[in-house]
Structures are given as C-alpha cells and as structure tokens.
What does this fold into?
Amino acid sequence: MPNADVPPAGTGRPSLVRRHPRVALILLVLLLGAIAHRPILQTLLGCGLQFAAAQRGFVFEAQISGNLLTQCSLKGLSLTPKPGAQTPLESLFVRQATFDYSPARLLFRGADRCLTAVAIEGVELRLSRFKKPVPQEDLLAQPPDRWLKALLGLPLFWTDQVRLSEVNITGADPQTGFALRGGILTALPGVSGVLAVESLRLPGGRDPVALRATTSFTNRRFILKGLRIAPALELSRLELDGSGRNRGVAKLQLEGLCGGGRLVAQLEAGPLTWLLHAEASQIKASELSDTLGKITGPLPDLVSARVDLGGDPNRPKSWSGAVRLRCELPLSSGGNASLECGAALENGALELTSLDGRAPASYFAGSGRVRLPGTWAEFARVEGGAQLEFESSNLGDWMPLASASRIGGTLRGEAKAKLAKGALQVDLQMGGDSVQAGSFRSAKCRLEASFAAPIQGLR
It folds into this structure.
C-alpha cells in the first residue's frame, strides 16, 4: 500500500498557498509587519535558534544581520555542546554564513524551493573522542530508507547555489587522526565550480594529500569530476541528483578508476522502490597498497563483479536480483587461487547459488539459502542454512610468504550453519595429516565442534 505521506510520482508537495491559503496570508502579513521592526525580528530569530540548539544539547551564539525579508546573515556563529551532552562535536565556529531566500517561492513552490543561495566562510570544526552508544532496539528494525532521507536532507539539495570557503576540520587526535585544512566548494548553476582541499589527512598516520576537482550544479543536480584521491584511486565522475526531492526520489551515479581497473555504480532510490546496478573489473590490490596502508599477507585481485538489485526498501521479501563475483589471490607458492561466488534474490529468498574456490592444492565449495522477512523488524524470525566443504594439501599456500614455511600439511572437512530465532548454530568437522604450525606437529588430527551464538541486531 502506498505511503500516504509521500506524494505520487510526478507530483510535488502542494505549496503553502494551496494547502492553507489563510495561514499563508496571515504569515505574509506578520512577516511584512515584522520587517518594519527588524530589531525585534532579529531578537526573536536569535531566541528561536538558541532554543532549538538548547533542545539538542548545544549552546548557540551568533550576531544576526541582513534585511531578513530575502537574506539573513549569521556572523561569529558558535556552537558548543552543553556539559554532559553526548555528541562527537567539540566545537563549531563559523565566521560568516549568509542565506538568501525567496518568500514568493515559499508561498507558491514550497519550502524545498525557498532557499536560493548559501555562502559560508571561515569554518572551524573540532571533533571529540565520542563513541555512540549501541542502541538497545533491534539494529535491523531500522529500515534502509533512513539513508535516503539523510541524502535528500543534504543542504546541497535545498538551495540553488553553494559557496564554502576556508573550511577546516580537526579530528579527535590532532596529530595522527583525521584532519582537513583549506576546504573550498563552489556549486553554481550553469558555471564550472571547484572542490579543493589544501591538506587532507586520513587516520593511521598517512601523509596528507591535496585534492582538487571540478563541479557543476544545475536544478539540484550536483556533478563532481576528476577527483584523484590517491595514485591508484580516482573518482572520475560523481553525480548526485536531488531534482526529485519533492517526490522523495534521489539518484546517484559513480564512475571511478581503482587499482588499474574500473568501477561504475548507479542507484535510483524512492519511497517505494530502489534500483541498484554496479560493475567492477580488473582491480589489482597490489596497486592499492599505498591507499590501503600496511597490510600483512596477500590481498585478492578483483577480476569482475556485477550487482543488479531492486525492490521496496522497507520490504526485504520484495527484493530481486543477482550478484556475481570473481577474484584471484596470489599464493605464497607462486600460483593463484580463484574464487567465484554467485547469489540470487528471488521469490522472497536469498540463495547462495555458487561458492567455488580453487588452487593448485586446495578447493572449497558451498551453498546456502535464507528466507527473507516481510519487514526489517521481522528479521529475528529469519531462517536458513548453509554448508561448506573444503580440502587443502598445502596449508602454507594461504599464509604470508614469511610464515608459509612454518605452516603445512593436509586439512579437509565440512561445516554446516543454521540460522533460526536470531541465533546462528555451526557444526564443524575436520581432520588433517602431517599438520604443522610453528613448533606444533601432528601426524593425524581430528576436530569436531558445535557452537551457537545470538547475532546482534537479530534478537
């Protein structure tokens, strides 16, 4: 059944004049009267902003100026959390923020078309060491359409043009944590803009990098081109389309170069239907070593991948589509292991149609099936199962080269998993010959084990 709060596709939410003409007339008269007494309106607006911030645990300060009929400026804006407030924000200071808007648009086209321009300069944002508490309610009871609402709630989709300058963000650890200095963004209709960052440092102690890309912005459609994040990682094109915001529809397109390969993705998300398509090919992990940081052991190369999915975001059972994946992993012996995986969503079930891994001295294969629930809140009642069998006559193949000589032998076995009532039960049987792991040696060994554990978010 369609959501009554969402307008049908192709129609926007009616303007305030159409929905409540008398209220619109009263607001217009009050606005014109208040403009004649601008200091009073500035005081009222300041009190309203302070009250709204206090309700969320913050202290707000700013000097308000502008004619307030079509423009409002906030100078020296300061936002700090109250003592005891649970928030990752340590402090926010903005030298000046200016908002241009149109009362006529508000009356005749709605609130989402009211804002015409945003200009913000001199931003100092500091983050604290805050860890969000784990919610007590079921994690999967929250449907994924909250991500769509967050995307459509971006300030970028509320205005016709954006100018940001001198943006600085400091993470909780100022020495080795996240830090962004000298951020600039201009998104103007019909004019080529720019996204630039003088210095961006990611967590982990990596060297800072400078970023630069071109932008365009027309009818709430933002396009970013040529953003090189690392030597082997470039975002060729990113498009965020919020022109359908009044219908609750957003579109995303991404094209990139990654590890010598190519990545493309498209997402169209609405209140009742999501459509996702993604493809990737020839992505070599060795070329991403600088981006991924220090990782011991070999990483798989992505040969090809394809995802095609669609369905109602609030009804997992309605989804259909397929996923295909093929990877290769270099082995310490010099050969390669291949992995092929396929999954299908159909008739209310997620089925692992194929899982096949092969190497010169090893193999594993598996399959599985899970019935999907009607809603995310019903995930606790999901039932399904999977099975896996494996055999390797050279365990050292799967270890990093430095430790491959200390591990060896033959290992074979099978595992079965069952999911029911929010708990996972696994039964494992395996045996080995001439197994060696460091100083441990065994001519023959056998292991049988069973365990069950609840899965967080499913109970």
